[in-house]
Amino acid sequence: xxxxxxxxTGHHKLFQxxxxxxxxxxxxxYIFCFVASSLARLNxxxxxRQPNIIYILSDDLGHSDLxxxxxxxxxxxxxxxxxxxxxxxxxxxxxxxxPTRGALMTGRYPIHTGLQHDVIYPGEPWGLPLDExxxxxxxxxxxxxxxxxxxxxxxxxxxxxxxxxxGFDDFFGxxxxxxxxxxxKNRNGLDLRSDYFDKDGKFVDELRWxxxxxxxAELYSERVVELLNGLKSQEKPFFIYLAYQSxxxxxxxxxxxxxxxxxxxxxxxxxxxxxxxxAMDEGIGNITQVLETTGLAENTVIVFxxxxxxxxxxxxxxxxxxxxxxxxxxxxxEGGVRTPSFVWAPTRLPPSKNNAMIHVTDxxxxxxxxxxLQGRLQPNHPxxxxxxxxxxxxxxxxxxxxxxxxxxxxxxxxxPVQCGHRVPHAGIRWREWKLILGAGxxxxxxxxAPALGDTAACGAHPDSYIELYNIELDPSxxxxxxxxxxxxxxxxxxxxxxxxxxxxxxxxxxxxxxxxPANFNHTWMPWQDMQGSQTxxxxxxxESVTKETISQDTENISKEIWLAGNQLTxxxxxxxxxxxxxxxxxxxxxx
Length: 591
Description:
Elements: H1 2-41, H2 44-47, E1 52-58, H3 76-84, E2 86-88, E3 91-92, H4 97-106, H5 135-140, E4 145-151, E5 170-174, E6 185-186, E7 189-190, E8 193-197, E9 203-207, H6 216-231, E10 238-243, H7 255-258, H8 268-294, E11 300-306, H9 334-337, E12 341-344, E13 352-354, E14 358-359, H10 363-371, H11 394-398, E15 407-413, E16 425-430, E17 433-437, E18 466-470, H12 486-500, H13 547-556, H14 559-565
Parallel strand pairs: 1-10, 1-11, 2-13, 3-14, 4-5, 4-10
Antiparallel strand pairs: 2-12, 5-8, 6-7, 8-9, 11-12, 15-16, 16-17, 17-18
Helix pairs in contact: 6-8
């Protein structure tokens, strides 16, 4: 028996050794195959070629407003791109429009550009500072042609703040933050233009009165199709920034898009909203079809994102959904800053789901890395950006590696905003943790897709004004862990203090009556550069925030201007009974 036992043990050990070697060999073969397939994807014809880049930015799109995020809206074209690309499950932006666009273009947090408070409203004489270097300027140093389509919203009181004076070769769209989708007017002024340089190099700003009645999503998609057909024979690479107006208020869309939803959506406003998403999706489908037919698809990278969460606040009827995330536009909760996003690059990226933490500031350094072929190409005339807050995420995306960042500032805003936080607030994400000081909203609740028949759940306002969440375990932010982890709260509060010490003054300036479109043939123009403008530049100094200045601050922007800036009417705005309304007891927080 002893001999048999010894032999059995020996055979067993031999088998274990063989199995271990076999497992190792399999792992080596797997790694080899993975590398080989990666090299195969990186088609030798394209591996050493600078990719064309198309960045598509939707406006006010909620997490659950798309088919590929299990939403109720039909988005077959976006679904296909997301399915064929890399789905970014932790893609973050700012909580509202201008700050996101500024962070995207500069690779810098809004606290470092003066865009940390609210947005640029019509007639306000300020914008993204002119000493900031932005994406098109960087890519031009690598021989890219640069084209902007759609919404700008980074300043227009002087020509120097508009797209062609900041590195773009041409622009078709609007300077302000919102307008009518068909008339292309904000209040009483037209703001739709084709900007370009003529054959003599002279700047031309062509106001497009001829496009009255044409739906903006269709116009912007058609413009990109036109660009692609013109760029297909161009040897140098291109960058297209496509910033759709969709699905920002006012909610309006041609009837043929609404008719798609007669069967499973009953509410008329919800049908309109769904139709707006579908109109954008159809346009993106037309764009990708042209990429395929022209052969440009094989060397093109598409990035899709929204500028912030869906707007579920200050509206009578919620038509957007950020579920299962909490809050929405203007909130520091996940529903306000965590956006549906993907990267599509058929010859460079296999289909996958990527959980790397990626922030909107990361795209400038990532695009620069792509344009330089990961540093193998040198810029023509090196330009130095200010210190970047973003990091290069191309390897994290292309090889599914861990993110190159472990933290980011959500925002630090010392002043209240209309339909948003009524106390100073700040937020930071660090590893799995998220700390909010002040107020995360409103909106504070959870808003499932209306068509699913669910009821919006309103979140109670925290008594402590301090909220700590473990985002990996609780992405819906349902359990405040402040009392359980005081050391984490202390550590992250100190981080917020350190970031706050680097913040620049707010760039906001009050409305200038000289901007009135009636002064310029009912068009929105850079009024400070127009003849006869006597508007002083000045500096809108920061004010300390107290209970008294909170009410004064909300009066700085008149209700008329606020409604116009958000393209809302009196009947659109919810009353005080709305569940997302915050209580009036304000306890100020220092940070």
